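Q: Could you write out the predicted structure for this multi-component system? I'm mainly interested in how the pieces pack against one another.
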Amino acid sequence: MSAAYNAMELMICCAARLLEDGRTAAIGTGVPCAAAMLAQRMHAPHLVILFEAGGVAPQLPTMPISVGDSRSFHRAVMATSMADIMETCRRGLIDYTFLGGAQIDPYGNLNSTCIGGDYARPKVRLPGSGGANDLASFCWRILVVTHHDRRRFVEKLDFLTTPGYLTGPGAREAAGLPPGSGPYRVITDLAVLGYNDETKRMEVYSLHPGVSLAQVRAATGFELGVREPLAVTEPPTPAELLLLREEVDPHRYVIGRC
Amino acid sequence: MSAAYNAMELMICCAARLLEDGRTAAIGTGVPCAAAMLAQRMHAPHLVILFEAGGVAPQLPTMPISVGDSRSFHRAVMATSMADIMETCRRGLIDYTFLGGAQIDPYGNLNSTCIGGDYARPKVRLPGSGGANDLASFCWRILVVTHHDRRRFVEKLDFLTTPGYLTGPGAREAAGLPPGSGPYRVITDLAVLGYNDETKRMEVYSLHPGVSLAQVRAATGFELGVREPLAVTEPPTPAELLLLREEVDPHRYVIGRC
Amino acid sequence: MDILFQGGGALWADPSTDRARRFFADKPRALIDKVMTVAEAVRRFVHDGDYFACGGFGCARIPTAVLHEILRQGRQHLRFAGHTATHDFQLLCAGNGLGQGQTLAAVDIAYVVGLEARGLSPHARRVLESGEVACTEWTNYTLALRFKAAAMGVPFLPVHSLLGTDTLRHSAACVVACPFTGEKVVLVPALYPDVAAIHVHEADRYGNCRIRGTTVADLDLARAAKRLIITCERLIPNDDIRQDPSRTAIPFFCVDAVCEVPYGSYPGNMPYEYFSDEEHIRQWLSAEKDIEEFRTFLQKYIFEVRDFTEYWQRCGGLPRLQELRRQEFLLHRGL
Amino acid sequence: MDILFQGGGALWADPSTDRARRFFADKPRALIDKVMTVAEAVRRFVHDGDYFACGGFGCARIPTAVLHEILRQGRQHLRFAGHTATHDFQLLCAGNGLGQGQTLAAVDIAYVVGLEARGLSPHARRVLESGEVACTEWTNYTLALRFKAAAMGVPFLPVHSLLGTDTLRHSAACVVACPFTGEKVVLVPALYPDVAAIHVHEADRYGNCRIRGTTVADLDLARAAKRLIITCERLIPNDDIRQDPSRTAIPFFCVDAVCEVPYGSYPGNMPYEYFSDEEHIRQWLSAEKDIEEFRTFLQKYIFEVRDFTEYWQRCGGLPRLQELRRQEFLLHRGL
């Protein structure tokens, strides 16, 4: 077992560490699922995971391919409806959710609908919200794990599919979204980012080992602040890597994507 | 087996005959249940019955005591929620419902909330709507089976719990209730009554054998029209009485109440 | 979408979803052991002045043990959701008008006082007719919808009940025109009970519950309630739950207490377990007629009794429950 | 309760509950035998121009046989509810842009084009990017709620999704202030599909259905749909249904056709039966890249094929399905 690690492994470890014990997380397949499974094996044995299609607290035998496949409710405590899961989120019982998108803006808003052209004839048609808009509207803390580049980190989205802080401080509440909810962290292959308490704009919390702030700024299409003191991300520990490689993702479905 | 019959048996037979085959009925315990069971054994083998607490198409082994007890979903095709039943009614899938009340007015409106005094300190506090208001708002045809006397058949209700035709023609629709739904028949120990197509006021359709129109009018606290030609109610047939006494209500739970 | 009509009834609980979210944000959500006695559950989770609701329908699948304990512990000034509340309502009324304070202060009424085909409860009538309990009118479905709105985390749900009636006038619902179709529609406000009690067939130590037969409004009530006491016929291992997660009706994170109470719906009916004890229910109705006799009756069956097992032992014990089991399965009819 | 904002997306189905009631008033509701072939069911119940919806989530529990038959019978100008529609959406798109008319005319989008972790469908992208299919945006939950509104017989339901986003601007939802709390809330209109198809584990001849595992939005969809085609892994006797009515997920009166289609969710996953055939799904995604290759692929797997059994026989037959069953139960991992 080597102490070296790839970017995917680092991102999963960063995400896992953010998930507190005794909390709940509505997760998707891939990185979020690996992060939750790792967290359960490290510091958060009482972390409860839910899948939007209806699986509650499954004991995952292997990575689900879909948030609705058989694995997503394997030895679950309940297999229910999507509405039941979404309503549980809406009542305020779900702490974390993981979302992705083709574009993210400084306020953590996400685009997964279309790029280029206009809405009726887009250059690239993407899937749409799925459950992302719902989860981002209902869960307390939104996490994003994504590759870091300028096409993805943009000042203005082509389409605002899923709400982050919208236009800044107070905008979520003014729109009718629940007070106290919103974007929490963005974990990329370069850094861990969060949001400025005052401006609600994204800023760098820690740089991954060997990455410079200039490098992160060069990969970001908008002005990027820094939370002082700027830290260096803790690399994965041998214990994390062991669990990740041997128990969480032995077939390298996720960690092999790098 | 005697061809003689009591008033309860006659009322049950009258109610049963009104239930067409292949239709659906949301029923309660007692007379409605006996009527539906008799109809299924006579002319309506495909009559489907539902109970508001969640029982769908049960094969009743005996009379339920409550619309929510075990009997109400004995060998049912589904045991579901009350909301599911009510919503099935609301979508327009349920043809008949049977309701009762302490008072009924000329438009078939019902009171099961309170009598005398005022609302905050009534002389007699009754149970309230239960599911009656919902069923009367959703099902196509409302049937009432009741004892016939002046305290019950009143010009003005002390409290309008459950909607009939409200104030007359067009009033249900104006209130927002579904077009084409409303009171259908009232079956009493004296007569079968219906509603005038124009005025939506109650009128006598048929007099039970041996009952005079004057007798019915004397037992009614409001002006009562007649649908011409005024018929005499067909008495129970030997076949009806046999099934009612031997199969539907062998313990005389309902037919013994007379 | 103007408000076309507003019912004049009082609203006994806050329908705000944002304020409910703040409560649920702090509700524990880990898989932890919640098994305790009914006495402890009522002590910890039912407070004076709470809005209380309970599961079941009529006399079927009711949490009788919790209601007895509420009386024994002398809870005061409860608000209550009376949705085909028969024996449960009768029990709460036994805390009023008998010189032991006022257990019931206000009630959202869909159906109370009556016991369906069995007739009206004399004492419940006495209590409501005295005017000491404040009332707002609803219907079985609209009261169930108020739980559903809360469960969904929305401040109201639309419905086409109530229209045109005095029930609407004495409710706290309002009428609006649908912005899509112009149809008139009633809006009923969400109802988040402070505490609810539901009796189920099986639960694990964490509160994952199974119900057999009709579920009435209990799936929504369980999710709407801020605190939830589960009584169950039987505790089962968590592994059983995980073997067939499709059968879980209530998930653990809704639940605060799990109390194993065999025969917990007695004298009510528990589907697939035992039928209602109609004879004992008749004794209740009969004892209520005279207020002194009722006091003695309550002493014997509730106040002098330590726990629920002692109650049903005073009602005929296991032989009686075996007879009710035979009735449930129609075995007494030679089937 | 003024309308604070109105989304500009088109509404592809009438949300009026009174008009839906008129339809349901005439829908047969007796327990009658509804067993027929998929070909007959599609012939009788899916019409050109219909609003169509299907059950399941992603590639799990999808009514593949009905989708194949829609293509084979060349249905035109369907409107569709795309709620985590992956392989099902891919199949409908195969009726567009290939010189065989236009199967898909409009779509309510929550999630289409993608196949979750498997990537995007090249042909579905082609079809949507051409602009020939009219789109309105929703989310998984709001689209599910539109079915729930229809199932409940109300013209809309409130929700707190969509707020503040372009998804709202391109939806047909509106924003109002709650009359009880003043909170902003979105109203989504009811969606009554003309016809829906749902794949279930077991059904009796009348259409009483059982589903194991997550139910997604299918209980509401079944009730919302004006006509409903059920495909099932297995027909079971009505007596089995009556032995345990708590397990019935969809009642017969919602159902118009019952088609026994073993492996009916293939190449999707059927919980507790067989896992998805990821290899075959990859073949679909790969064949779609080149339009000519895709035509040939469709000929082989759909248009030259008589029925669903012949389809899975062309995909490896029973040995492949046995392998997928082993994957479902994790038997391939030595467990």
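A: Regarding packing and overall arrangement: Chain C touches chain B through 67 residues (CB under 8 Å).
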